[in-house]
Design a protein that fits this description.
homodimer; about 190 residues; alpha+beta; three-stranded antiparallel sheet; two-stranded antiparallel sheet; about 30% helix
Chain lengths: ~190, ~190
Amino acid sequence: MTTTTHPIPTTRNGIDCTRQAQTLEAIAGNHALGDVRFRATNHWRGGTRTGSCIDGYASAGTDMKHQNSFTIDSDLPEGFLGTDRASTPTEQALQALAACMTTTMVYNCAARGIEVRSVEAEVEGNLNASGFLLLDDRVRKGFSQVRLRFTIDADATNDELRHLLQASPMLDVFTHGVPVDFVVAAD
Amino acid sequence: MTTTTHPIPTTRNGIDCTRQAQTLEAIAGNHALGDVRFRATNHWRGGTRTGSCIDGYASAGTDMKHQNSFTIDSDLPEGFLGTDRASTPTEQALQALAACMTTTMVYNCAARGIEVRSVEAEVEGNLNASGFLLLDDRVRKGFSQVRLRFTIDADATNDELRHLLQASPMLDVFTHGVPVDFVVAAD
């Protein structure tokens, strides 16, 4: 009779579970290690166009550089008097919500030994332009409602997956809001 | 004595003000013309990577196509066990907030005869990973605070500019939240 050993996989869902366990243990023992400051710069490019640059962040108080400087342009469709050369900021925020929910769920699945094979998401948000065009102050300026549909192939129940999708930072921001302070300086 | 006529400019801040005035009048007269449904799809690309596609939206109940299909990839930095090949969803949402505030302000300035010459924005958000990693349910999962700094060259006071930046759809969502419904289907 032979004995078959099943080595503990070091990677699950494409994530290094050995390093993940060490990272989670470190943050659980010292919450300050989990502090992150994300940032971006944006500049107006004329008309309805802007361009953003994302190149660094701070992790546990230490400034870090991304491997590359990432750029994201925005525009509005022609029906909104734009030039339709890029997606709109509102579409970008919706896709960020879907991407954040998927990434958070897959990441937390890896930490719990749950294999994920595929995730597809559709996201949609309703708004009415008479709010942000300041035509009617009874109409809210932002989305009145956002809906997502996830199609997931994973070794977990839908309820377990729902619980892990709920851990998403952007879902928290979208559903609960966040204090936003801004200052305006003359150039 | 000669009379100098000053023709009404048809473009202000790069926006066609003649068409803008017609658009605003039409929506003011019939709010349903201002209804928009923005959408995106996202798929998991393994590990910490996702990819989004943005190609259409609905305006006043009519399905519209963007001129191009826009893609946005996301990833996490190596310190978060990612491959750092794209910006994070949280960074993408922050830049979308800044882009939305700038676009909304410039657009509403054009409608009010206010010339804008330049806009730069910096945006930053704090979060602590022990929330979304489900290590401590007393720590919120999303940003605890978001800060922006705008540097604007325009023919308006800072108070007028603040008022028009406040009209941003994404600022409304970030500060007040929005009902988000999601469903999970097994693949």
